[in-house]
Amino acid sequence: MDRHHQGLSQRLRGVWAGVALALIAASGAGQASAEAYGGPLFDAHMHYNVEAWDGKAGPYPPADVLARFARNGVKGVLSNSRPNEGTRILAALRSEATSEPLRREAADLQVVPFIRLYRNRADYDNWFRDESIYSMVQSEFARGTAGGPYRGIGEFHLYDSANANGPVAAKLMRFADQKQLAVLAHVDDVAIDLLMAHASDGGRTLRLIWAHTGIGGPSPQRVEALLQRYPLLMGELSYRPGLTCDQGQLCPEWRALMLKYPQRFLIGSDTWVNQRWSSYDALMQGYRTWLGGLPPEVARAIAWDNGAALFGLR
Ligand SMILES: [Zn+2]
Known about the structure:
Order of helices and strands: HEHHEHHEHEHEHEHEHEHHH
Bound molecules: zinc ion
Largest sheet: 8 strands, parallel
Distance between the termini: 69 Å
Radius of gyration: 22 Å
Strand content: 5-15%
Number of helices: 13
Number of strands: 8
Structural class: alpha/beta
């Protein structure tokens, strides 16, 4: 073998080593995707808006959504709705269900009620400076639900992160902090810092659930920096751009982030429009697919344990 061929053969060996590594990685991913996660789920981003139940009649009345939760193994839900009546209806089902099948399914579901800040669509763009929203939150908190006290506020949106410094936004963050309410926030990474600054100890005490873990798509590195800075920040994963890659499995950098911070992520449906209810089974199956590609204890943490720990579920 002359030097030229020796060099070629070494290069080829290098190529084959690369191919072999790629095959090992692919077979690893293949094995991981073979079995979907089969344990309980906590849906950390569920809306039961008036369009869904429409005065209890439909198209997705309480019996229908309970059946969806049951067949998908969803044992707990973070519920919020426009208006709050939808959440109150779900929270009351355990004690007030009128039929036996409904009572049985309701007994199997733990509802974590959140106060929605919106009475109507117009409130989306004004809540952070509207004192009447603050008053509404106070009276709703005092009222509670038939299933127990409210556990958080949100989901709210900030389309301009500077509005995190609106007077009502600041007051609501302090209120949540004092009452140990969690916050479900659909905001960008800049607004996370601004919202946290309203809470005590530089935001280290505020239980903020970051809806979609940043809708504008901050990099996993930026997400990690925020997770490090705020020990109670949690990332909810619906509509998260860049989350999954081949065969519905996590992209490598997200997988690495979840392996490093298994206690900091939650899954959610975000049933903000009725179309999301119609695809609820597929959404949950999508989560089960990539959860199945994680080590079992990490999958179980993200699927259920983290939400259960946050809200003291059994
Ligand atoms: Zn939402």
